[in-house]
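Final report, closing paragraph on structural work. Over the funding period we assembled a curated collection of sequence-structure pairs, and we close with a single example.
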Amino acid sequence: MRLRSRFSQRRQGASAVSTVLTLTSLVDLFTNLVLFLLYNFSGEAAAIPSAERMKLPESLAQLAPHTTLTIMITQSDILLDGIKVAEIETVMKESDLLIPALKKEMDYSAERGKYFANLNGGKPFEGRVTILGDKQIPFRLLEKVMFTCSQAQFGQIDLAVIQKETT
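Its predicted structure, as stored:
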């Protein structure tokens, strides 16, 4: 008769035990993940960033905002998706309507948008942009930003406003 080692006895005993795997916690995890992704990518009103000390104009518009490229015009800077691209003081000194720094970044965004549109094969590149600007900004500045958008293949321009209550 042969003596068994302690390890072989333990291994033999382990194979005799059946284990039941419950998938309840894994299903809960995936459910939460799916709900989180659906909530975050729904494209609702949360798509527009807010800025401190910025008052958007009021309007009776009823359209919901889309998730797009966002240009924010603050009191001192022009931001493209939260990144500073130009200073307002410098832009206003120039006589030309085109803002070169903004156009450069928007051209890059347009190329990237076209690449992903071709990659997905679904929706084509629309060239949509949303402009958020304080209601006190000069019209000449807004005109320059809108001209630059149109030159950078972003012809569908939305202006962000606060919805005014109808009486």
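The chain has five helices and seven strands. Residues 43-47 have pLDDT under 50 and may be disordered. We thank the funder for supporting this effort.
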